């Protein structure tokens, strides 16, 4: 298994590769849109697959939501896409290792978020056109309750839940970078994602799909202002969780190996 320092170098090289790919702006935007759509598919599976358990108050609903939602990150990793939340760890590490400038790292994270939003809106439009969230259906009732709950949380709660969310996402990305077996990588992704979904943590890209679905299906009492603020706070928390808590901790830990 690689040392911490080697893994840091691998992540920094991944950041440099992202920077190089971003020279083709249109293609990079499509990569971001794909990641947003893949996470949106995870949201779809969560709402469509677990709505009965959720609406009827099953104690296992949270765990099952996490287990099925994990398909989103599995698709991002294995099908390919530019996901901002993992980029929030990778790009700061690339800047620390001087593979890219801090300004370019920040720009790339912002650009990934834009691409993710485009993909989230696009997949939400397709899902809504398919009438998956018919009024009074279990799927609709779950969407309505989940989005309403997200929008009524205090911003401090959203922020700290977002930190913990991206700790789990970036730990998954960090860990699978140190592994060679693809089946084992999928298991690690599934476990890490189950933790953050079951605990009700806040993932800015997943929320893009949930909020888009709510807008398109008149659910959750959503408004543009409330959704925007929630996404901004969640995005800030995700950045702290990925860049500072996970990335920063391993930068310090790597010094033990010197």
Automatic annotation (TrEMBL):
Example GO molecular function: formate transmembrane transporter activity
Pfam families recorded: Form_Nir_trans
Membrane-topology descriptor: Multi-pass membrane protein
Membrane-crossing residue ranges in chain numbering: 28-48, 60-84, 105-133, 158-176, 183-201, 221-253
GO cellular component, one term: plasma membrane
InterPro entries per UniProt: Aquaporin-like, For/NO2_transpt, For/NO2_transpt_CS
Highest taxon, organism lineage: Bacteria
Principal subcellular localization: membrane
KW Membrane (keyword) present: yes
Key words, A-Z: Membrane, Transmembrane, Transmembrane helix
Compartment(s): Membrane
PROSITE patterns linked to this entry: FORMATE_NITRITE_TP_2
Similarity section: Belongs to the FNT transporter (TC 1.A.16) family.
Protein name as it appears in the record: Formate/nitrite transporter family protein
Lineage per the UniProt record: Bacteria, Bacillati, Actinomycetota, Actinomycetes, Actinomycetales
């Amino acid at each position: 298994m690689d040392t911490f320092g080697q893994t840091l170098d691998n992540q920094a090289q991944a950041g440099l590769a992202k920077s190089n790919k971003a020279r083709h702006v249109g293609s990079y935007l499509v990569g971001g849109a794909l990641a947003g759509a893949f996470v949106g598919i995870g949201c779809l599976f969560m709402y469509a697959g677990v709505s009965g358990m959720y609406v009827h108050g099953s104690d296992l609903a949270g765990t099952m939501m996490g287990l099925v939602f994990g398909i989103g990150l599995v698709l991002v990793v294995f099908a390919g896409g530019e996901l901002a939340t993992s980029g929030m760890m990778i790009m700061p590490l690339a800047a620390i290792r001087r593979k890219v400038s801090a300004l370019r790292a920040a720009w790339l994270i912002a650009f990934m978020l834009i691409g993710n939003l485009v993909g989230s809106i696009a997949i939400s439009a397709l899902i809504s056109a398919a009438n998956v969230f018919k009024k009074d259906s279990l799927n609709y009732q779950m969407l309505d309750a989940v989005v309403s709950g997200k929008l009524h949380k205090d911003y401090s709660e959203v922020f700290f839940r977002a930190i913990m969310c991206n700790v789990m996402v970036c730990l998954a990305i960090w860990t699978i970078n140190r592994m060679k077996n693809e089946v084992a990588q999928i298991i690690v992704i599934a476990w890490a994602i189950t933790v953050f979904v079951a605990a009700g943590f806040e993932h800015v890209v997943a929320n893009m799909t949930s909020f888009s679905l709510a807008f398109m299906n008149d659910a959750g009492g959503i408004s543009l202002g409330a959704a925007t603020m929630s996404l901004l706070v969640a995005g800030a928390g995700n950045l702290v969780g990925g860049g500072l808590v996970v990335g920063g901790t391993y930068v310090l830990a790597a010094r033990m190996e010197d």
